[in-house]
Design goal:
By secondary structure, the chain is mainly α. It folds into 2 domains: 32 residues, no CATH class; 102 residues, Orthogonal Bundle (Helicase, Ruva Protein, domain 3). The protein has 9 helices and no strands. The longest helix is centred in the middle third of the chain and has 18 residues.
Length: 165
């Protein structure tokens, strides 16, 4: 498992900080990260600064126990799906297993095609998006991958959007 972090810009400041970085500097900065390397990372997301009012908000979100329960339920689904197979998790699905287990609704198929063309994604990125979408659908206890599952997975490819746009 690889977990990595990088600054949002060469100056270290995010886009909402008020610091300006010109497009050429940003392009040069992002080009230091190899496209083929990015292709092999399932999830890459921006983590924006959290405004103070949200930090001070007393409203509770999902707690760790609830999240653990969701993950355990999704793992049970995957155990049943891959019973008898050498791997037992979505992240290790072979291309053949992806075609078998990542069934999309027609709206999701249309969305994936549009995302692939618009973002210029590779076949490897396509498969990674489907693996992540399958996991999101499992967390939602959904047999089919719908447009919302796929949209969330595509949004986890934020560096693809920046790198290729």
């Amino acid at each position: 498992m690889l977990i990595a972090a990088m600054n949002p810009s060469p100056s270290g400041y995010g886009p909402d900080s008020g610091h300006r970085v010109n497009a050429l500097q940003m392009e040069r900065y992002l080009s230091k990260v190899s496209g083929p390397l990015l292709d092999r990372i399932d999830i890459h997301i921006e983590v924006p600064a959290v405004p103070f009012r949200e930090l001070a908000d007393k409203q509770e979100g999902t707690n760790s126990a609830q999240m653990k329960e969701q993950v355990l339920q999704a793992r049970e689904i995957q155990e049943r799906r891959f019973s008898g197979a050498p791997n037992r998790i979505n992240g290790r699905m072979s291309p053949r297993q992806i075609r078998q287990h990542c069934r999309l609704t027609s709206d999701a198929e249309f969305f994936l095609k549009a995302a692939m063309e618009e973002m210029g994604l590779s076949a490897r990125a396509h498969d990674r998006i489907l693996r992540v979408s399958r996991t999101i659908a499992d967390l939602d206890a959904s047999e089919l991958i719908d447009e919302t599952h796929l949209s969330e997975a595509v949004n986890y490819r934020s560096l693809d959007r920046k790198y290729w746009s």
